[in-house]
Specification:
The protein has about 110 residues and is of the alpha+beta class. It contains three helices and five strands; from the N terminus they run ββααβββα. It folds into two domains: about 70 residues, Ubiquitin-like (UB roll), CATH 3.10.20.280; about 30 residues.
Length: about 110
Protein backbone atom coordinates (compact mmCIF):
# COMPACT_ATOMS: atom_id res chain seq x y z
CA UNK A 1 0.00 0.00 0.00
CA UNK A 2 1.42 3.40 -0.98
CA UNK A 3 1.79 6.30 1.41
CA UNK A 4 -0.69 9.19 1.06
CA UNK A 5 0.47 12.76 1.38
CA UNK A 6 -1.53 15.96 1.69
CA UNK A 7 -0.96 18.84 -0.73
CA UNK A 8 -2.81 21.98 -1.80
CA UNK A 9 -3.51 23.29 -5.29
CA UNK A 10 -4.10 27.04 -5.68
CA UNK A 11 -5.33 29.18 -8.57
CA UNK A 12 -6.86 32.65 -8.65
CA UNK A 13 -8.41 35.02 -11.14
CA UNK A 14 -9.45 38.62 -10.56
CA UNK A 15 -12.96 37.39 -9.78
CA UNK A 16 -12.39 34.27 -7.68
CA UNK A 17 -9.80 32.03 -6.12
CA UNK A 18 -9.59 28.39 -5.25
CA UNK A 19 -7.40 26.57 -2.72
CA UNK A 20 -8.02 22.82 -2.77
CA UNK A 21 -6.57 20.38 -0.24
CA UNK A 22 -6.21 16.77 -1.30
CA UNK A 23 -4.43 13.55 -0.38
CA UNK A 24 -2.46 11.88 -3.15
CA UNK A 25 -0.57 8.60 -3.33
CA UNK A 26 3.19 9.01 -3.18
CA UNK A 27 5.06 9.24 -5.45
CA UNK A 28 3.00 11.82 -7.33
CA UNK A 29 4.05 14.52 -9.79
CA UNK A 30 2.93 18.14 -9.72
CA UNK A 31 0.88 17.53 -12.87
CA UNK A 32 -0.82 14.43 -11.43
CA UNK A 33 -1.76 16.34 -8.29
CA UNK A 34 -3.22 19.23 -10.33
CA UNK A 35 -5.31 16.80 -12.39
CA UNK A 36 -6.45 14.89 -9.30
CA UNK A 37 -7.54 18.13 -7.59
CA UNK A 38 -10.27 18.79 -10.18
CA UNK A 39 -9.17 22.41 -10.55
CA UNK A 40 -8.94 22.05 -14.34
CA UNK A 41 -12.71 21.48 -14.42
CA UNK A 42 -13.35 24.56 -12.26
CA UNK A 43 -11.20 26.86 -14.41
CA UNK A 44 -11.39 25.87 -18.06
CA UNK A 45 -8.91 28.62 -19.03
CA UNK A 46 -6.01 26.80 -17.34
CA UNK A 47 -3.58 25.43 -19.94
CA UNK A 48 -0.73 23.56 -18.27
CA UNK A 49 1.21 23.44 -21.55
CA UNK A 50 1.49 27.24 -21.42
CA UNK A 51 1.05 28.40 -17.81
CA UNK A 52 3.83 28.22 -15.26
CA UNK A 53 3.45 26.45 -11.93
CA UNK A 54 5.27 26.73 -8.64
CA UNK A 55 5.42 25.38 -5.12
CA UNK A 56 5.38 28.02 -2.39
CA UNK A 57 6.33 30.73 -4.97
CA UNK A 58 9.27 28.69 -6.34
CA UNK A 59 8.94 27.79 -10.04
CA UNK A 60 8.84 24.02 -10.67
CA UNK A 61 8.38 21.63 -13.57
CA UNK A 62 5.22 19.55 -13.92
CA UNK A 63 7.28 16.33 -13.69
CA UNK A 64 8.70 17.11 -10.23
CA UNK A 65 7.38 15.05 -7.33
CA UNK A 66 5.23 16.68 -4.66
CA UNK A 67 6.27 16.64 -1.03
CA UNK A 68 3.97 16.53 2.00
CA UNK A 69 2.51 19.98 2.70
CA UNK A 70 3.35 21.45 -0.74
CA UNK A 71 1.13 24.26 -2.02
CA UNK A 72 1.09 23.96 -5.80
CA UNK A 73 0.35 27.32 -7.45
CA UNK A 74 -0.82 27.73 -11.03
CA UNK A 75 0.21 31.16 -12.32
CA UNK A 76 -1.80 33.25 -14.75
CA UNK A 77 0.01 34.79 -17.71
CA UNK A 78 1.25 38.34 -17.11
CA UNK A 79 -0.90 41.02 -18.69
CA UNK A 80 1.96 43.53 -18.89
CA UNK A 81 5.73 43.39 -18.69
CA UNK A 82 6.76 44.52 -15.16
CA UNK A 83 9.94 46.18 -16.48
CA UNK A 84 7.94 48.18 -19.00
CA UNK A 85 5.48 49.32 -16.31
CA UNK A 86 8.34 50.46 -14.05
CA UNK A 87 9.96 52.33 -16.93
CA UNK A 88 6.67 54.14 -17.66
CA UNK A 89 6.20 55.09 -13.98
CA UNK A 90 9.76 56.47 -13.84
CA UNK A 91 9.20 58.56 -16.99
CA UNK A 92 5.94 59.92 -15.57
CA UNK A 93 7.69 60.86 -12.30
CA UNK A 94 10.36 62.74 -14.28
CA UNK A 95 7.71 64.55 -16.33
CA UNK A 96 5.85 65.56 -13.17
CA UNK A 97 9.01 66.76 -11.44
CA UNK A 98 8.93 64.05 -8.79
CA UNK A 99 12.23 62.62 -10.07
CA UNK A 100 15.50 64.14 -11.26
CA UNK A 101 15.58 64.33 -15.07
CA UNK A 102 19.18 63.09 -15.26
CA UNK A 103 19.57 60.54 -12.47
CA UNK A 104 15.97 59.46 -12.03
CA UNK A 105 16.37 59.84 -8.25
CA UNK A 106 14.48 62.18 -5.99
CA UNK A 107 15.06 65.83 -6.93
CA UNK A 108 17.21 67.79 -4.50
CA UNK A 109 15.42 70.63 -2.76
CA UNK A 110 17.27 73.90 -2.63
CA UNK A 111 17.38 75.13 0.97
CA UNK A 112 17.10 78.83 1.70
CA UNK A 113 20.28 80.25 3.18
CA UNK A 114 20.03 81.51 6.70
Amino acid sequence: MSERITVEVAYATAERQSLLTLAVAAPCTIEQAIIASGILQQFSEIDLSVQKVGVWSRPVKLQEEVQPGDRIEIYRPLIADPKDLRRRRAEKAKDEGRADKVTGGRPHEVKASE
